[in-house]
């Protein structure tokens, strides 16, 4: 057997992109001795280094959520509603704002999963 490391030989339970920075660092320290300085790297740097060693080509069209701008707008709206809720005095107004905020939060979660 050669000393070449493959993705299958690592025996991963998750994909590299789904792993946390801590898990990636541990993987590098335990199974990939070619990469040095892993403790000082963040997740993006670790992913690039691991994919370099394994020979995985990064796709040009990185998966981005097409609804990202819409989600951002909704979240800014939620922040402003929270400020309004803090200033509101009537219980009825606070309840209405709370329900609207919850509805918008559900919408952002749905949009982020829609990809």
Automatic annotation (TrEMBL):
Coiled-coil blocks: 71-114
Keywords annotated in UniProt: Coiled coil
Protein name: Rho termination factor N-terminal domain-containing protein
């Amino acid at each position: 057997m050669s000393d070449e490391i493959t993705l299958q030989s690592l025996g991963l339970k998750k994909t590299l992109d789904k792993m946390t920075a801590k898990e990636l660092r541990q993987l590098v320290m335990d199974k990939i001795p070619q990469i040095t300085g892993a403790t000082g790297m963040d997740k993006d740097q670790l992913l690039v280094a691991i994919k370099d060693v394994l020979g995985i080509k990064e796709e040009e069209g990185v998966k981005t959520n097409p609804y990202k701008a819409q989600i951002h707008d909704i979240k800014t709206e939620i922040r402003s509603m929270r400020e309004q809720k803090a200033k509101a005095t009537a219980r009825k107004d606070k309840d209405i704002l709370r329900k609207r905020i919850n509805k918008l939060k559900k919408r952002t979660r749905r949009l982020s999963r829609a990809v």
